[in-house]
Amino acid sequence: MSITQSSPTLREEVRAGIARALEGIAEAMRREARSRAPRRTGRLAGSIDAMADTGHGLVTLRAGAPHASFLHTGTGIHGPAHRPYIIRPRRKRALWWPGAPHPMGVVAHPGIRPRDYLREASAPEFIIHAFEDAFKNVTTNRKGAL
Question: Considering only Cβ atoms within 10 Å of each terminal Cβ, which end of the chain, N or C, has fewer?
C-alpha cells in the first residue's frame, strides 16, 4: 500500500526549505574560506563571498581581491607556469635587500606555494557537515510538522 500526496503548497514549502538550506551551506562555506584564507592585512579574507544558486543547486565561492588568484594557485615554479620568474632592477643597476650576499643584477624568484583555501572550504566532508546543519535548521524552523 502506498499513499501519494501532492499539493502545490507542500511543493513550494519543500523548494523554499531547500533554498534556505543551500543558503545556509553557502554561508558556512564563506565563513570557512574566510577563516582559512592567508592573512596579512585581511583584505583577501574580506573579499571572499559565497553565492547560492537555488535554481540549479550550486554554491559559488569567490575571492575578489586582486592578489587572490596568485595566492590560491601559486606563482613561479609552484604555479601554472612551473618556472621561476625573473626580477630585474627598474631604476638602478642592481637589486639589494637586507640579507643579500651582494647587489644582484637579476634574481630568479621561485614563487610562492599555492594555498587552496577555497578548495579546502568546499571539501566534500565540510559540505556534508554544513548540509546536515543547514537541514536541521530548516526543519526545526519550519512551521508545523513534516
Answer: N
Question: Does any domain span residue 4?
Answer: no
Q: What are phi and psi of 50, to 5 degrees?
A: -130, 135
Global confidence as pTM: 0.75
110-144 pLDDT, tens digit each: 999 999 999 998 888 878 887 787 777 767 765 54
Question: 15-29, 31-45, 64-78: which range is least confident on average?
Answer: 15-29
146 assigned to some structural domain: no
Helices 8-36 and 124-140, axial angle in degrees (round to 10):
140
Helices (H) and strands (E) in the chain, counts: 5, 4
Are residues 68 and 50 located together in one domain of the fold?
yes
Residue 145, pLDDT score: 44
**What is the number of structural domains in the chain?**
2
Containing domain of residue 89, as a range?
A: 83-111
